[in-house]
Fold:
Amino acid sequence: MNWYLKVLKQYADFKGRASRTEYWMFILFNLIFATVALILDNVLGLAFGKSGIGILYSIFVLALLVPSVALSVRRMHDINKTGLMVLVGLIPVVGTLYLIYLLAKSSFPGENKYGENPTISYNYDEETDSMQTVELSSDDSSIEDSVILIIVIWMAFSRLFWALVPIFTENHYSPVWYELVNMLMGIVWAFVPFGLAFAVKNRVKQTTLFVIGGLYLMYSLIEVLQSFAASGQSGMM
Structure:
């Protein structure tokens, strides 16, 4: 949670660098809070029409837009890229995959033109009367486990929410809207573990991410095919 608060304190700071841990911990908490906001909007009847999106979720997204962009820019700086590289994510599929890969890369070693390496701290050693560098283990040794945990929680929360949606379908949702968004989200989010897998060096964890992404993608594609089949049958009738 300290990482999340750190980003909020640097609300519109587009300078400096942000480590992988800082970025992905912020994304994790954002996903959790956004899911809670969506659920509350529907439980409290605050959703706009039958879109499922309501006041609380809209306020949350708008409030976190600037710090999210600023954090992404600082993450690009950390791998020694210009902040404009975040725009590559606007390119469908390929651009999104490449951006995810960049966001998951390890920090550029040492200092660059954007600042000091955020995974390195400097401590004064009284015995040697000199500054000693200490690598922060939170960003180095546990980042791959954190990435996998984030992906699993991301999918679990998203699928849980959309699994609960049919409960509110009759009163709050348009069935056509729900089915379309559910299928599109499933396909798009399936590419997230694929993109991250290329940035994970451990073979076992890399394979795990590929398997998770593959299963998730197949499940989403099956939903699409079933939807088309149902549409075809209704059209023939």
